[in-house]
Amino acid sequence: MAETTVVTPLASTHAPLAGPGAPGLRRSPAAQLADAFAAATAATAADAARAVAVREVPFLPQLGLRAVAGSAGAAALESALGVSLPSGHGNTTSGGGFTVLWIGPDEFLAVGDEGGAATSDRGPAEAARVGAALGEVGARTPGAVVDLSANRTTFELTGPSARTVLEKGVSFDLHPRHFAVGQAIATVLDHVPVLVWKTGEDAYRILPRASFADHVGRWLIDAMREFAVRELTAPGAR
Fold first, then answer.
1. Residue 50 sits in a domain of what CATH number?
2. How far is the C-alpha of 234 from the C-alpha of 238, rounded, in Å?
3. Which segments show compositional bias classed as Polar residues (predicted)?
């Protein structure tokens, strides 16, 4: 069977938001939950040993990458990104303003670092820049780059109870002896496909597709209720 090579165009057909009113038109997939996230976080804050915080980290640039490990295409993408591609399941690599998550043997997701203007739309420009490393039309190196920034949003869960919250809906073993800082896996949270990325000892990022953002966000809020601190207003009050 002949090999099929998928390549990316050198320029995006979707121009980034522009104009003085454009930034105000952009709305994150879970913007409607911002107040609920703040309330859920505040409800657990009084007990530092059991606290957990949740927030959305919107508009991170995300690039879908395809290249066979060790190939010229992989080398070209690594050079453009400024970071090597991870070598196996669960692994990530960081550099050049991106963290690259391993999705499959020849599939990766490069997630941009948090920072810059929250309303900026860097994805198309970054996809075009990295994709250009594959060469000119008619003489491209096998590989692919596509802007996936609008495909997923990112939730961040932090605090001593963060792992316990996730364990209510994730069957994958999240214990530190099995899931180390810096690792990321594709799994299911309450029947929803997500990426779970451990960014610190008590810090996780959960990446659902944008269409599931409201459901996953509300699930996290509900799972945090166990750790809410309720003040007793009188002796014997419940």
1. 3.30.1360.120
2. 9
3. 1-11
